[in-house]
């Protein structure tokens, strides 16, 4: 009975992580850029049954050149739950939840403390970078990638601790899955594995690591070979998009100073507890706590490599978030368990209570009211209209630019069509944005059926010379 409060806390933590991750998962329209590209890839694959070559507008996709593991999982979700936002995001959401729970497993294995376990899990759940856009609430690669990276790291450390070959095989599997999720981003974690092997076992185990990495690379190389054979130009495009291009040069203007990720972590990507990170790391080194040192160095190594890469995007730091949670939770537990000063202990409890209260509230507001959601609503006005369109006649729309977030809904709803001006006929019903008003007037005579500051629906009554 004496453990009942702690078990209740664990139940609350698990339930809170589930609700925070899945509440309103399908509410947002498919989000601009990456999620929409993956959504179209998955939708077209589900409809064409071509499960090997990802396509966009029914052509082999040489822009999104990541391996298709995430797309396959999305297709599986589509087949189970239908073509909708929830299915597109389900693999990412499950990966986010599993990452939170895996962090709890890691902390509990080191501390045997339910309190420390819940603290670490709640820190990660309430941070602003994981359950967020381009994290685990949208159908992007990064949430799945971070689960495989943390799982591979966990199995790596278990193997180095006990020498169990099952852990080594699990390590190889998770590394292979990370490569099939996001190729180059997974490779950035290789120096982390090298450090762990060298720091814990010395040079004698390094051949085991190299052989393991080579085995893990086999599925990736086989996929690349087969994909290139199926569609010439894939290998060249993948190298330019995912490897040399992004690391050596700032792609699509996504650049920043060397401290880009540090600034973001302390600014908005984590939560209030980020200010405990540096003292926690210093504590681990001062006390020579090997576990804290290991996770701190892993954090430093990955931060170093994403910082020297020329392409910088805020979600590249997602693998850091579980590591930060682990380091801080382990440090707080070490202080509480090894120092009997009541003042110090109550100070730690107060920090945890105040910090978690604030973080839990902020995340609850984000989940329930989308407060702090960094999304420009005006971009999605057409998406919102066509995703809910249930009219009997065809609704046409013209965007004029890359618009995968709108195009996705033409694959969902057969009563919505994406067209060029040349395909528009008299009596067609059309939705468009105000910025195209001049070109509409140049090409058509029309009647406005509905209008606001973001979009308008029209009926074509006449066609001028194209």
Question: Could you describe the 3D structure shown?
Answer:
The protein has 466 residues and is α/β, with parallel strands linked by helices. The protein folds into two domains: 4-369, no CATH class; 377-463. Helices cover 62% and strands 6% of the residues. A five-stranded mixed sheet has the order 4-3-5-7-6. Helix 13 (277-286) packs across helix 15 (320-338). The radius of gyration is 25 Å and the shape is globular. The N and C termini lie far apart (80 Å). 42% of the residues are buried.
Query: Would you report the number of β strands?
Result: 7
Average pLDDT reading: 92
Tally of separate helices: 19
Structural class: alpha/beta
| Strands in their spatial order, largest beta sheet | 4-3-5-7-6
Question: What fraction of the residues are assigned to beta strands by DSSP?
Answer: 5-15%
Residue share in helix? 55-70%
Shape type: globular
Distance separating the two termini: 80 Å
Report on the biggest sheet: 5 strands, mixed
Total discrete domains: 2
